[in-house]
Amino acid sequence: MNPPKLTPKAPAVIPPVIPPEQSLITYPSAFPIKVMGAQVEGFLEAVLAVTRQFDPGFDPATVEIRSSSGGRYLGITVTVTATSREQLDELYRTLSTHPMVKVVL
Q: Helix 43-54 and helix 85-96: axis angle, to 10°?
């Protein structure tokens, strides 16, 4: 049996600058982020560690976890307290570039 081929991830996309008065998000607010990756040891812990870097008051009780139907992938939804667009952008960028993460929504 051959090991799965690893494909390089696309570079993180930097969103356009939106003036605060045009933002659809009111800060601070609860903001859910879905993170997907292979169901491997340490994936959940890695996602939670990154999340805590950007939201020190993060409550792990709000985490939702779902396995894919085949059991190969894990979907993790973390709800952070978003305090600014910059915080969210940097959190998305950090999660997107993490080697264990496949997709961030």
A: 160
Q: Specify whether the CB–CB gap between 58 and 52 falls below 8 A.
A: yes
The 10s digit of each residue's pLDDT in 12-47 is 555 556 666 666 888 999 999 999 999 999 999 999
- Looking at the structure of the chain, the number of domains it has is 1
Alpha-carbon distance 18 to 3, whole Å? 43
Burial classification of residue 39, based on how many CB atoms lie within 10 Å of its CB (0-12 exposed, 13-18 middle, 19 or more buried): middle
Q: Does some domain include residue 16?
A: no
The first and second tokens of residue 24, run together, are 């659809």
Domain encompassing residue 40? 26-104
Q: CATH number of the domain at 87, please.
A: 3.30.70.260
pTM for this prediction: 0.79
Do you know the residue count of the chain?
Answer: 105
Q: What is the pLDDT of residues 67-87, one digit of tens each?
A: 999 999 999 999 999 999 999
End-to-end CA distance of the chain: 32
